[in-house]
Amino acid sequence: MSIFKSVSHQQINHLFAQLNDEWMLITAGEPKLFNTMTASWGGMGILWYKPVAFIFVRESRYTFEFIENNPYFTLSFLDHNHKNILNYCGKYSGRDKNKIKETGLKPLTTKHGNVYFEQASLVIECKKNYHHTIQQQNILNPEVLKAVYSNNDYHRMYIGEIVDCLTKEK
Question: How would residue 168 be classed by pLDDT, with cut points 50, 70 and 90?
């Protein structure tokens, strides 16, 4: 029996607080081979008449190749009780560490075959629709270049149609 239920994207409350304060795990890949990373940059909206989520991943991140090579990604929001997991997944690369083993994350699979985690309080499953790498000439605020991209390691933005939202059963 699942401890999660599908809800409409319109039922997601306090998204800005979740992104900024509680962060999220971006996960891509297949159940036998996937990676996850901590992120707090992203958002949601409507694009091309569809509910979407957008995320930013640097090309240097191990998760990047999983997102590039898979049509879906998931966003798992963990509450404050799991900040240690988020810190670990943000500090270490899946190239070097087994994040699942080290953190005790418990992977589950969506009906589309994508990985999310039992510890999540909210899961957003997305199908990739668009991507674009941030380019220096398009950054209008020079302070951003200096503070975020001084080493020219630019993010790629992914926009994914929200195909499912899962919350824990109460």
Answer: confident
SS (H, E, C) the chain: CCCEEEECHHHCCCHHHHHHHHCEEEEEEECCEEEEEEECCEEEEEECCEEEEEEEEECCCHHHHHHHCCCEEEEEECCHHHHHHHHHHHHCCCCCCCHHHHHCCCEEECCCCCEEECCCCEEEEEEEEEEEECCHHHCCCHHHHHHHCCCCCCEEEEEEEEEEEEEECC
Count of CB atoms situated within 10 Å of the CB of 34: 20
Task: Give the domain ranges of the chain.
Answer: 4-168
**Mean of the per-residue pLDDT values of the chain:** 90
Q: Tell me the whole-structure pTM to 2 decimals.
A: 0.88
Q: How confident is the model at residue 5 (pLDDT cuts 50, 70, 90)?
A: low
Phi, psi for 88 (deg, rounded to 5):
-65, -45
Q: Is the Cβ–Cβ distance between 32 and 139 less than 8 Å?
A: no
Q: Domain 4-168: which topology?
A: Pnp Oxidase; Chain A (2.30.110)
CB atoms within 10 A of CB 60: 11
Task: Find out whether 94 and 63 touch, Cβ atoms under 8 Å.
Answer: yes
